[in-house]
Amino acid sequence: MTSNKPTIVLAPGFMTDHDLWRDVVPHFSNYNVVYADFREGATLQELAASNLSRCPERFVLMGFSLGGYIARHMLYLAPERVQALILVGTSTRPSGPSISGPTTNKMFRGMSRAALVRAVHTSRTADEDLIERMKDMGTRLGAEVFARLSALDRKSDLEAMRDIKCPVLVITADQDRLRSLEESKEMAEAAQATLIVLQRCGHMMPMEEPDQLALLVRNWLTKNNM
Known about the structure:
The chain is α/β, with parallel strands linked by helices. It has helices spanning 44-52, 66-77, 113-118, 128-150, 158-161, 181-191, 205-208, 210-223; strands at residues 7-11, 32-35, 59-64, 82-88, 168-173, 194-198. The protein has a single domain, classed as Alpha/Beta hydrolase fold, catalytic domain (Rossmann fold, 3-Layer(aba) Sandwich), CATH 3.40.50. The two termini are 17 Å apart. GO terms for molecular function: hydrolase activity. Residues 8-214 form the AB hydrolase-1 domain. Keywords: Hydrolase.
């Protein structure tokens, strides 16, 4: 890690890993990049704490989808360490566990095609390379991570967002079928954040429109002297 560069920490979404950011990272050559992950933790707080332990003293934090929940909990645990928060395709609305009982490796076949297709813009549903990349991430993470993430209890933290002091950027997509514009507006209003809508894009912004996403984030960071 280069000491004279600022650091950006990238937190992935449900059943995604570092490959989510493959085409975004080249745009952040002026930053040290740290990948958050789902190695350990059965609650949002535990996942946040485990990732904080692998981060430098100060950093910019960018969370996608489920990673947005984890990123916010990292900030709540250590607000003095987070220089800026970027929330992509995420929400503060509550949701309880989505599966009951254990999922075994024998049962697990990765994310279904129907679920993957719903996460992309309608024009990309036949993009087999994109769908395969998404499926491969889930397969790599496996049954244990799927069960643990599906069991997460995501309580609303909308009120907590009102106390965030660092600059916040909220990014949504005009054709996101998993997270609504209203959800992004709620977050932006609570945190007095900048809200940007990515055009001609579905939920998987870091993979569908990495150049557009990265440019928006870089410009915003530059305006905030980061």
